[in-house]
Specification:
It contains 9 helices and 12 strands. It is α/β, with parallel strands linked by helices. The strands form 3 sheets. A 6-stranded antiparallel β-sheet has the order 5-6-7-12-9-10. β5 and β6 form a beta hairpin. α2 runs parallel beside α3. It is globular and about 60 Å long.
């Protein structure tokens, strides 16, 4: 781990480390375990991580919402704050507004995310519909570490398209956004897709619901530092006709850059069109498909 951290520093990359929450309640054996449960042990570990320059911890397998577990979350966050370490909880309770008190609590899982493609045979069938429910429910109450944009198959094949998956980078909000596929998969993408994923923000100044219905489809517009991004997904097995219109943007002509599904399975189509606040662009979302886009200045 120390060698990894030194290597990452040379690449200007910060490192987060995963931990089992531990404790007598915990039946999961994956290590490191029992370094986060007792306060004296946890503070010693946080001091070690601080000295090494670790940026954050992902702590997993809380397995309960009993009072002592809720207390453990708060104690972890209090100690992490002192040692300037960010936190992301997995195998955890729903967000409960703690990030307002502890802004270093960047995200929580509390969702059946993309890892379920590894071990749940039924997940691929339910994922397109679930993805169109979560923005209205789970993600509406706090940052959600779904680990999206998984393009390649794990044990069970995706039914969502490439357009659907890249749209999740805009549709799903997480204070730390962890794209779930291998680096090699992203490096092989077309330049326009790589550029989009490397620039899409993970926090937003403004979010506007454009269209949708839970379980069927959703289209969102999000703004960061004056730039607008847009994403839409189709959770159904039928085509969905939508219209892209942003009447609330500033005056002036820009270019709308769109990435959506290509004609071949697991491919992209890319186009740019002049766009202003009066423009309306029709777009067809294929079954379980989607799109992502952003407004850029005219070239």
């Amino acid at each position: 781990v120390e060698d990894l951290i030194e290597y990452a520093k040379g690449k200007s990359v910060g490192v987060w480390l995963w931990y089992n929450s531990g404790g007598p309640h915990n039946t999961v054996t994956e290590a490191p375990k029992n370094l986060m449960f007792r306060r004296d042990v946890r503070r010693k570990e946080f001091q070690r991580l601080s000295n090494l320059g670790v940026k954050g911890v992902k702590i997993d397998f809380f397995q309960s919402d009993k009072p002592e577990m809720i207390r453990l979350y708060h104690e972890i966050l209090q100690d992490a704050k002192e040692f300037r370490i960010m936190c992301n909880f997995h195998g955890c309770t729903l967000p409960r507004g703690w990030a307002r008190t502890y802004p270093h609590n960047l995200s929580s899982e509390a969702v059946r995310g993309a890892e379920c493609y590894i071990f749940d045979r039924a997940f691929p069938e339910s994922a397109p519909v679930q993805n169109c429910i979560l923005p209205f429910t789970r993600n509406a109450v706090g940052s959600m570490d779904y680990t999206p944009v998984a393009l390649s198959d794990q044990n069970y094949k995706h039914l969502t398209t490439y357009g659907h998956e890249i749209a999740l980078s805009v549709i799903f909000e997480s204070g730390i956004q962890h794209f779930a596929d291998k680096a090699a998969v992203y490096l092989q993408l077309p330049d326009f897709a790589r550029n989009f994923l490397s620039s899409v923000p993970n926090t937003w100044d403004r979010t506007i619901f454009l269209d949708g219905y839970p379980g069927e489809f959703i289209v969102l517009a999000r703004q960061k530092n004056g730039q607008w991004y847009i994403g839409g997904i189709n959770g159904t097995t039928e085509e969905k006709e939508i219209t892209i219109s942003l009447p609330f943007i500033n005056e002036g002509s820009q270019l709308l850059e769109i990435i959506t599904d290509g004609e071949k399975e697991r491919s992209f189509m890319y186009f740019k069109k002049p766009f202003d606040k009066a423009t309306a662009i029709p777009l067809t979302l294929i079954p379980r498909g989607g799109f992502a886009g952003r407004l850029i200045m005219e070239e």
